[in-house]
Write the C-alpha cells for this entry.
Amino acid sequence: MRSTGQRGELLVAEKLIEHGWSVAHPLSDTARFDLLVVKGEQFYRIQVKATLKQHSYKDSRLHYQFQLAHGLSAKKRYEAGDVDFFICCAIDSLRFWVIPFAEAKSITTKIYNGTKGRFHKFEGAWHLMESEQKNPP
C-alpha cells in the first residue's frame, strides 16, 4: 500500500533530521532509493521499508516483516550502488532499524521481538551512518 510507504518515508525523514541530516526526496519514482541524506561530507542513498504492525502467521512468533526488494509483482534484489542503507520502520511502535546494504542478505527480512536475533543490533542504530565514510560520487 503506497500510503504505508509514504508514512514510513516521512517518519524516517523526521528521525534523520532529528539526527542532524539534511534530507531530500528524488523528483521521480525511477530512483532505487527513497531519500538522499547529507551531513557534512557524508552522503547516503536510503531505501525505506515500512510496515503497519507485527505479523503472526500459523506456527510463527510475532514479528515485523519487510521486503528488501523492488518491483510490484516480481521482487528483485537491490544491487550494490543502488542503496547504502535500508531503514525499516514499524509504524505501530515507531521502531526503526538502520541496516547497512551489506548486511541485507535476504529479500524477506523478519525481525522478532526480544534481544536476540540477527537484526536486533540494528534497532535505533543511527550511529552506523556516522561511522560509515561515503562521499558523493
